[in-house]
Specification:
The model has no long low-confidence stretch (mean pLDDT 93). It is globular and about 40 Å long. Strand 12 and strand 13 form a beta hairpin. The protein starts with a helix and ends with a strand. By secondary structure, it is mainly beta. The longest helix is centred in the first third of the chain and has 8 residues.
C-alpha cells in the first residue's frame, strides 16, 4: 500500500499501518552535555543492540525515577539530532488536558508489560511486517492523536493494548499524549 493510499484510510488504520510502539526498558540515564533539560536514555528494546533516545524530561524526573522502568517507545520515529546527540525514537508521555505550554509531564510507564511488546489499538493485530515499517515523521505521528481517557491511553476511542494489558496513565488521566 502506498503512503498516499494509507493517508486516505481512517485514523486507526493509518496508525496501525504506520506507527510501531514498543515497550522498552531504560537501562541508563545520562544528563545531555549540551542541554540542561535533556536526558540521554539508553533502552533495551528486546533487539540485539540497545537504542538511544533524547528526551526533554529533566524538569519532571530524576534519573533514579526512570532507571529500570519500562516505557513505550515510538520505535519507528524518524531519527533526529538534539544538540549533537542522535535520538532514535521518542518515549510516550501524558500531559494535563489543558496544558498547551508543556508544563506537565507523566512518562507512561509500562512496567506491567514485557520488553519488546508491541502496542496496538484494541481490536487490531500487530502487522506481520512491523519490522520493515518505514520511519514515521514526527508531524505524521502527531497527526494521529493519542490521549488519555479515564486513565487509559486511547486513539479514536480504542485503548492501546499489548498482550492483553492496557497502557495506563496514573496522573494525567484525561489529557494529551505525545
Amino acid at each position: 500500500m502506498t503512503p498516499e493510499e494509507i493517508n486516505k484510510l481512517p485514523v486507526l488504520d493509518q496508525f496501525n499501518l504506520r506507527v510501531v510502539l514498543k515497550v522498552s526498558k531504560i537501562v541508563k540515564v545520562e544528563q545531555h552535555p549540551g542541554g540542561s533539560m535533556l536526558y540521554i536514555l539508553t533502552l533495551n528494546t528486546g533487539d540485539e543492540e540497545p537504542r538511544q533516545i533524547v528526551s526533554s524530561i529533566v524538569p519532571f524526573y530524576k534519573p533514579e525515577e526512570l532507571l529500570n522502568h519500562n516505557i513505550v517507545l515510538v520505535y519507528n520515529l524518524k531519527p533526529a539530532n538534539f544538540r549533537g546527540v542522535r535520538s532514535n525514537g521518542m518515549l510516550l508521555a501524558a500531559s494535563e488536558g489543558t496544558d498547551e505550554e508543556h508544563e506537565t509531564c507523566e512518562v507512561l510507564f509500562a512496567d506491567n508489560m514485557d520488553v519488546g511488546t508491541i502496542l496496538e489499538p484494541e481490536g487490531f493485530e500487530v502487522p506481520a511486517d512491523v519490522d520493515t515499517f518505514c520511519f514515521v515523521k514526527p508531524e505524521k505521528f502527531f497527526s494521529l492523536p493519542l490521549y488519555t481517557k479515564d486513565g487509559f491511553v486511547e486513539i479514536e476511542g480504542k485503548k492501546l493494548t499489548g498482550n492483553g494489558k492496557y497502557l495506563e496513565a496514573h496522573v494525567y488521566k484525561n489529557g494529551t499524549v505525545g
